[in-house]
């Protein structure tokens, strides 16, 4: 399984550690393996392989064997020589434990360096804290929403609507006044009544 393609799930958190080993005539092999009590997944990502300052001007051949494969055929990693190629880059080479490095030719010293990537299972409390942090970040990033501005056309249409409504109310008031019953004529005074009585006596 490769860890460089970000294929791990959210429950797994990758931890990267510096890794390295030395091969020489005194110790010509080194095995990269995981302790049995470790339940997490591990991957070794190789970076560089180089000769030490005390290396002789001779060819140094380093090979690796994947112990979990069926064939277990050694694969050459690099052929180094101080006067020709003292160092080589191994970017992109990933190994799953166990794997054995061996100095096939030369007296060394040869140094191999890389990164040890460990996938740790995250707890439920860590997941809750991550969710809370994500919610806080989203709340800070979202700007307050502003009410939409009314355009000039909308303002003009609202003004026209209010004036039309006002004219309609005025017309209703005029119609209501015209239909109302007229008040009775005022009665005449006492002088008029006396004149009518005098005319009757004649």
Secondary structure blueprint with pairings:
Blueprint lengths: L11 E12 L5 E4 L8 E11 L8 E7 L8 E6 L6 E9 L3 E7 L4 E12 L2 H18 L10 H28 L10 H12 L1
Antiparallel strand pairs: 1-8, 2-7, 3-6, 3-8, 4-5, 4-7
Describe the structure.
The longest helix has 28 residues, at 152-179. The protein has helices at residues 124-141, 152-179, 190-201, and strands at residues 12-23, 29-32, 41-51, 60-66, 75-80, 87-95, 99-105, 110-121. It has 3 helices and 8 strands. It is of the alpha+beta class. The strands form 2 sheets. The protein has a 4-stranded antiparallel sheet with strand order 1-8-3-6, with no helix packed on it. Strands 2-7-4-5 form a 4-stranded antiparallel sheet, with no helix packed on it.
Helix content, binned percent? 25-40%
- Which ranges are low-confidence, i.e. pLDDT below 50, for 5 or more consecutive residues? 1-8
The helix/strand order is EEEEEEEEHHH
Oligomer: single chain
Strand content: 25-35%
| Count of alpha/pi helices | 3
Radius of gyration: 50 Å
Number of strands: 8
Task: Provide a concise account of the structure shown.
With 202 residues, this protein is α+β, with helices and mostly antiparallel strands.
List keywords for this structure.
alpha+beta; 8 strands; four-stranded antiparallel sheet; 202 residues
């Amino acid at each position: 399984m490769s860890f460089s393609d970000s294929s791990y799930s959210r429950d797994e958190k990758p931890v990267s550690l510096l890794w390295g080993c030395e091969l020489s005539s005194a110790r010509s092999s080194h095995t990269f393996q995981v302790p049995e009590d470790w339940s997490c997944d591990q991957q070794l990502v190789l970076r560089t392989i180089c000769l030490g300052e005390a290396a002789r001007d001779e060819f140094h051949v380093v090979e690796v064997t994947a112990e979990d494969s069926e064939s277990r055929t050694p694969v050459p990693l690099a052929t180094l020589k101080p006067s020709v190629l003292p160092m080589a880059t191994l970017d992109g080479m990933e190994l799953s434990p166990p794997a054995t490095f061996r100095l096939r030719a030369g007296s060394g010293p040869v140094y191999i360096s890389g990164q040890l990537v460990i996938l740790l299972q995250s707890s439920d409390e860590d997941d809750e804290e991550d969710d809370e942090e994500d919610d806080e970040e989203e709340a800070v990033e979202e700007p307050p929403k502003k009410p939409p501005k009314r355009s000039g056309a909308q303002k003009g249409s609202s003004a026209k609507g209010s004036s039309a409504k006002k004219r309609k109310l005025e017309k209703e008031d005029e119609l209501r006044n015209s239909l109302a019953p007229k008040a009775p004529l005022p009665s005449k005074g006492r002088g008029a009544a006396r004149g009518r009585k005098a005319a009757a006596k004649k």
